[in-house]
Amino acid sequence: MPELPEVETTKRGLEPLIVNQTVERAYLHRANLRWDMPKHLVTTLSNQSVDKIQRRGKYLLIKFEVGTLIIHLGMSGSIKVVGNGTPLEKHDHFELVFTNGKRLRLNDPRRFGAVLFSKDGTHSLLDNLGVEPLSELFDNEHLYTRSRKKQQNIKSFIMDSKIVVGVGNIYACESLHKAGIGPERKANSVSKKHYKILTQCIKEILLRSIAAGGTTLQDFSAVDGKPGYFSQTLSVYGRENEKCMQCGSKITRIIQNQRSTFYCKSCQK
Fold first, then answer.
1. Which of 23, 45, 104, 254 is the most exposed place for a label (fewest CB within 10 A)?
2. pLDDT score, position 211
3. pTM of the model
4. In angstroms, rounded to a whole number, what is the distance separating the alpha carbons of residues 94 and 50?
5. How does 148-185 read in b/e, with b if 16+ C-beta sit within 10 Å?
6. pLDDT over 70 for what percent of the chain?
7. What amino acid positions are annotated as catalytic residues?
8. What is d(CA 107, CA 111) in angstroms, rounded to the nearest whole number?
């Protein structure tokens, strides 16, 4: 599933290609993804210029004067910008054609993504999102303060989008390993000192992944079609029974909340 680094990589790739460009026409190549795509986009976005692109959690926000196009990549989605004459690929479900001859296409094989629209830039899907992990609001106090009454395991806690957005399964595993915190510990049992360390680890892991273009484990690719390379530097995720790069012990895999968790029993307490 594309997580924060993959969506941020997509956003950065799109900015120089579509900001200040004018939409000639929008195409809905199917009626729905996770939800129905607004049919009015065909007329609403016609002759509209892209003002800017933002990211909120795992949502891409493409801003126009008339409102905001909200895109979620779902489980397997990706966005590419191609030239006129480029044949549609299977699972290209949404398309913006620009007057400069470029086309933005959302490809989503599993159709868990979303294309939505908001006139004022607000939406119920965005209302309850937590702080951005790369912002100043995600400081050394945030996780500690929010965790004091939390009995859930620490991994689920930092993956809660109401607490902090964008720390998906891969990045939670990697951050906890780097911070030396066991994934089964209760959130309220972790000290302020270790939450400070974890906060910095989350920021570092996410920034490293963004710099590498995200993590490609199955089918994510960036706007230019290139895969992300952060998977080549993963310390624990997907490495069950392989040696820990820090201590040489075997990496363990367990199931938490129906998701695989990878960690080192020796390094993480």
1. 254
2. 85
3. 0.88
4. 16
5. eebeebbbbbbbeeebbbbbbbbbbbbbbbbbebbbeb
6. 93
7. 2-3, 58, 259
8. 9
Containing H/E element for 157?
A: helix 154-158
**CA 11 → CA 20, 97, 116, 178, 222, distances in Å?**
14, 18, 17, 27, 9
Distance between CA 18 and CA 100 in Å, rounded? 10
Query: Burial, 126: exposed, middle or buried (Cβ in 10 Å; 0-12, 13-18, 19+)?
Result: middle
- CA angle (70 as vertex; 15, 128 as ends), nearest 5: 115
Calculate Rg over the CA atoms of the chain. 20
The pLDDT of residue 192 is above 60: yes
52: helix, coil or strand?
strand
Q: Where are the domains of the chain?
A: 4-127, 142-264
Architecture of the domain defined by 142-264: Orthogonal Bundle (1.10)
